[in-house]
UniProtKB/TrEMBL annotation:
InterPro entries: DNA_clamp_sf (IPR046938), DNA_polIII_beta (IPR001001), DNA_polIII_beta_C (IPR022635), DNA_polIII_beta_cen (IPR022637), DNA_polIII_beta_N (IPR022634). It comes from the Bacteria. Residues 252-371 form the DNA polymerase III beta sliding clamp C-terminal domain. One of its GO terms (molecular function) is 3'-5' exonuclease activity. This is Beta sliding clamp. One of its GO terms (cellular component) is cytoplasm. Forms a ring-shaped head-to-tail homodimer around DNA. It is found in: Cytoplasm. Belongs to the beta sliding clamp family. Residues 128-249 form the DNA polymerase III beta sliding clamp central domain. It holds the Pfam family DNA_pol3_beta_2. The lineage of its organism: Bacteria, Pseudomonadati, Thermodesulfobacteriota, Desulfuromonadia, Desulfuromonadales. Keywords: Cytoplasm, DNA replication, DNA-binding, DNA-directed DNA polymerase, Nucleotidyltransferase, Transferase.
Length: 372
């Protein structure tokens, strides 16, 4: 096996698989990338048995073949090579010779036959989504995914299609038990049995989907094969095993009858929160929001550091109320908002708060209150 390839192309290809390869080294071959040279391209495949990626790149192939090599070490080598064409040759016993300019490396590989099977997805029926829509929806929900591995059914994003007032909507929901984010978009002729029931995309798969959604304007194909979601864009295919578990009934978490409502300038709120969070407790990140007619005061207190407060004008004419929230949770929500004004909705100081853009019914976030 022998080929040559532009360093920048090879570097980009290897960078994309770094998030996929197994880092715990439970099975050595999973920390490797499979490289297949054929005709005028090379095909790179990486998997950790939960999420897999395959992508092709142009190269000058003088001898077809396939081999696997450490994805991390190969990436580190290519990153340090000079700007030139890289020559790659697989020799006997899976040794690999890399040369670029006057640099020469001999590294150990593993036989391609040991690499896990990557499913053929050509027979899969695909639905098509605009990349920009996918990227925006993931940005507005990914921050709410749980990082607690024991809550495996919350370690991802719930995808579902449903009829909302006669419109076909794709809805994404994420929650970690302390906060919830929901976003939905209208899509024409988008029907899927799997999505009608609802499926949970795993966190690692979500992160890889988000990366390719942000690359270029090409549309994304989405399909399902057994218990896997198949994502395809240009020459890249991602296969991810769906989380086998029940997503909680999120509609029960979304509060109703919240009579206390304030319209707040997003930018002012965001920056005031960042300032007040500096003196909040390192552990709880708690800040207090106090609403009075026409004004919102944000305050924080830490016995070891001191206290701070700041107020600004808001559109509010209800009763006086004070409620505590985790500042980081509020900042995560505000950071993904495009609206100039957001609505903060509360029932009382012991109930969850809800934040949504003033002029957009397709996003909402729920945050549990804190005792301060």
């Amino acid at each position: 096996m022998q080929f040559s390839i532009e360093r920048e192309i090879f570097l980009k290809a290897l960078a994309r698989v770094q998030g996929i390869v197994e880092k715990r080294n439970t099975i050595p071959i999973l920390s490797n990338v499979l490289i297949v040279a054929e005709q005028n391209e090379i095909v790179l495949t990486a998997t950790d048995l939960e999420v897999g990626m395959r992508a092709s790149y142009p190269a000058e192939v003088s001898k077809p073949g396939k081999v696997t090599v450490s994805a991390r070490k190969l990436f580190e080598i290519i990153k340090e090579l000079p700007e030139d064409r890289v020559s790659f040759q697989a020799k006997e016993n899976c040794w690999i010779e890399l040369s670029c300019g006057k640099a020469l490396f001999n590294i150990v590989g593993l036989a391609a036959d040991e690499f896990p099977y990557f499913p053929e997805v050509d027979q899969c029926r695909f639905l098509t989504l605009p990349s920009k829509v996918v990227s925006d929806m993931l940005e507005k929900t990914a921050f709410s995914m749980s990082t607690d591995e024991s809550k495996y059914n919350l370690n991802g994003i719930f995808f579902q299609t449903l009829d909302v007032d006669g419109r076909q909507m794709l809805r994404l929901v994420a929650t970690d038990g302390h906060r919830l984010a929901l976003v939905q978009r209208e899509l024409e002729d988008f029907k899927s049995e799997e999505l009608a029931k609802g499926v949970i995309f795993p966190k690692k798969g979500v992160l890889e989907l988000r990366k390719i959604a942000e690359e270029g304007e090409s549309r994304i194909d989405l399909g399902f094969l057994e218990n896997n979601a198949i994502i395809r864009k240009d020459t890249t295919t991602i296969v991810m095993r769906l989380i086998d578990g029940e997503f909680p009934d999120y509609n029960r978490v979304i509060p109703q009858d919240q009579e206390i409502r304030a319209r707040i300038p997003r930018d002012t709120f965001f920056h005031a929160l960042r300032r007040m969070a500096i003196l909040s407790s390192e552990k709880s990140r708690g800040v207090k929001l106090s609403l009075t007619e026409g004004k919102l005061e944000i305050s924080s207190s830490n016995p070891e550091l001191g206290d701070a407060r700041e107020d600004f004008e808001v559109d509010y004419a209800g009763q006086e109320i004070a409620i505590g929230f985790n500042a980081r949770y509020l900042l995560d929500i505000l950071q993904v908002q495009d609206a100039d004004e957001i609505s903060l909705q509360i029932r009382d100081n012991m109930s969850p708060g809800m934040i949504r853009p003033v002029d957009d019914d397709n996003f909402l976030a729920v945050v549990m209150p804190m005792r301060l």
